[in-house]
Inverse folding.
């Protein structure tokens, strides 16, 4: 799950769009911790970028780098990879110089990436520099835009290009893009799987409005934007410099099916997504879960429960409601270390395991001789639940029951939440008795899928009875068609053990100078290689220079002036030189 942001100021001379994007990045940090980036666009049609691996504060050196990013518009991205690797070179926003200069931030996952790659290679003849599906999407868009053959384009040309792009891409996406010197675009997949909301505020220059788009409304609220409007499934919006937004349905709205996992885990509780208040949905989840707990445990076991405890942080809202409905004391027994971040979205299993203990510390007096009902929002790999049950017992609890606000997660997530490959999911081949045994609990209680859907749908501003959600992870029925063989492909690219083995072998081969091209490519995702081809030891915080057999970054040196209309053309857009990009991109290089 990634976070995306876009800002455009009414005043084309404004140089502060990036500082708003930067502010918003911190509000969406929970959506991606692996990489962060901003690209700004100034009135001369130049882009300026700063991106790299790490959280926003590291990449932007607590804001010091934002001064390098002048412009009246900007894009931001927070990455939690679902495709490709965690390499620096896959940090977003992505950029292509042709046509017109385009930068793009993508939240989601394309499930027909190999087909798109082939099309770009064989038919469009566009070079793809990484394994990222987002780079593919940007290039598909760029190629369709190029089909206009015009030196100057208008919003309708963009919509037409998007229409063609939507016919090629399959999966979930919410994207924001910037055309150099021209304006901003936002668009969302035909099912509205991934979220995108637009807001506005009066411009500081006194005339017109500034606009922001973001994955979650909390970013808009905190930056002073109002008049929210969710971008509809299959809808695109174009905000040209100094103009009002123009909307177009670039693909028929197929079904309005937002991803239910946004409400379960991903989004902040103070966000409203597609008109559904996240905190309220979690309260509802707590109340309905309590009913299932009553039924499953029965009066005797229920009477034994002394306290209801949340597993911070996401489940707190629901746990309060479970306690209220069961008429049991709500007790916070775990203290969360606020300097350790979300463990589930950490990149490796070892880190996730370590993360749980470092993040949550039990206060023994809250547990001693108690029968405890633990409440979490979800059980994915079981890393948290297993460790927590153990900690609960170590802290002196007698019986430990474990309740999950989400139903068993039995299938892979394919639209932008890297839940795990199905073989890693604890519920994939286990029933609740086996799961309880596996995590060491006396019993495990899961929310029913219908109850979960009702908890969210009842808050929908559309017809609640007809509100549907993307729930493939719980039942294997996905909203888009999925090609035969996709899951095998997924298993292959995501299966952690396999990835690890291949990676280790490749690293070793590179270290010993016996790697073939494929191994060099593979190793370059985990082992940094400098511009001379020398291997830099991993985890030293140094930037990614890109794999050896690929062009590292774009070169060029056109002129910087925009024409009278301010619209981009091949001539008036300066493509950043590799030196410029080095300066901005390679934060930590000595
Ligand atoms: O079964 P698992 O694989 O452990 O994944 C599920 C857990 O991961 C998440 O917590 P996380 O620490 O990421 O975030 P939170 O602080 O928002 O709860 C989620 O809230 C569950 O607690
Ligand atoms: N979580 C996401 O939305 C990821 C976006 C994109 N698929 C990537 O891996 O960078
Ligand atoms: Mg959690």
């Amino acid at each position: 799950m990634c976070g995306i942001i876009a800002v455009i100021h009414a005043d084309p001379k404004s140089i502060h769009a990036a500082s708003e994007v930067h502010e918003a990045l911190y509000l969406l940090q929970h959506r991606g911790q692996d990489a962060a980036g901003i690209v700004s666009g100034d009135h001369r049609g130049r882009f300026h970028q700063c991106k790299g691996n790490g959280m926003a504060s590291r990449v932007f050196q607590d804001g010091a780098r934002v001064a390098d990013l002048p412009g009246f518009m900007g894009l931001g991205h927070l990455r939690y990879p679902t495709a490709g690797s965690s390499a620096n070179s896959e940090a977003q926003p992505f950029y292509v110089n042709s046509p017109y200069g385009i930068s793009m931030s993508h939240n989601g996952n394309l499930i027909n990436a190999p087909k798109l790659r082939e099309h770009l290679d064989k038919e469009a003849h566009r070079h793809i520099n990484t394994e990222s599906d987002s780079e593919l999407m940007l290039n598909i868009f760029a190629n369709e835009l190029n089909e206009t053959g015009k030196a100057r384009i208008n919003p309708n040309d963009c919509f037409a290009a998007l229409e063609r792009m939507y016919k090629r891409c399959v999966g979930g996406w919410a994207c924001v893009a910037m055309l150099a010197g021209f304006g901003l675009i936002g668009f969302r997949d035909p099912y509205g799987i991934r979220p995108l909301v637009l807001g506005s505020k009066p411009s500081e220059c006194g005339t017109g409005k500034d606009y922001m788009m973001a994955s979650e409304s909390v970013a808009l609220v905190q930056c002073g934007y109002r008049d929210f409007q969710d971008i509809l499934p299959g809808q695109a919006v174009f905000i040209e410099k100094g103009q009002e937004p123009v909307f177009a349905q670039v693909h028929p709205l197929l079904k309005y099916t937002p991803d239910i996992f946004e409400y379960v885990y991903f989004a902040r509780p103070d966000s409203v997504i597609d008109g559904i208040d996240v905190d309220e949905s979690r309260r509802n989840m707590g109340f309905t879960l309590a009913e299932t707990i009553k039924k499953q445990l029965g009066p005797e076991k229920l009477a034994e429960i002394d306290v209801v405890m949340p597993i911070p942080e996401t489940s707190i809202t629901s746990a309060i409601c479970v306690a209220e409905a069961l008429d049991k004391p709500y007790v916070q027994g775990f203290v969360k270390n606020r300097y350790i971040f979300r463990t589930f979205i950490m990149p490796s299993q070892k880190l996730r395991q370590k993360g749980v203990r470092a993040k949550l510390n039990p206060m023994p007096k809250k547990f001693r001789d108690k029968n405890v009902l633990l409440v979490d929002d979800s059980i994915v790999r079981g890393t948290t639940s297993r460790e927590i049950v153990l900690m609960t017992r170590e802290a002196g609890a007698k019986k430990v029951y474990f309740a999950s606000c989400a139903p068993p997660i039995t299938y892979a997530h394919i639209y932008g939440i890297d839940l795990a490959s199905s073989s890693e999911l604890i519920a994939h081949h286990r029933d609740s008795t086996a799961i309880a045994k596996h995590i060491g609990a006396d019993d495990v209680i899961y929310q029913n899928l219908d109850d979960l859907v009702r908890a969210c749908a009842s808050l929908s501003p559309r017809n609640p009875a007809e509100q549907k959600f993307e729930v493939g992870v719980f039942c294997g029925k996905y909203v888009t068609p999925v090609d035969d063989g996709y899951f095998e492909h997924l298993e292959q690219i995501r299966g952690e053990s396999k990835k690890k083995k291949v990676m280790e072998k490749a690293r070793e081969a590179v270290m010993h100078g016996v790697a073939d091209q494929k191994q060099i490519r593979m190793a370059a995702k985990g082992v940094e290689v400098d511009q001379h081809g020398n291997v830099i030891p991993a985890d030293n915080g140094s930037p990614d220079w890109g794999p050896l057999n690929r062009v590292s970054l774009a070169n060029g040196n056109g002129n910087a002036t925009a024409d009278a209309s301010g619209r981009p053309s091949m001539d008036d857009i300066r493509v950043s030189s590799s030196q410029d990009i080095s300066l901005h991109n390679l934060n930590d290089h000595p």
Summary: The first strand starts at residue 3 and ends at 8. Residues 281 and 456 are 5 Å apart (CA to CA). DSSP finds 18 helices and 23 strands in the chain.
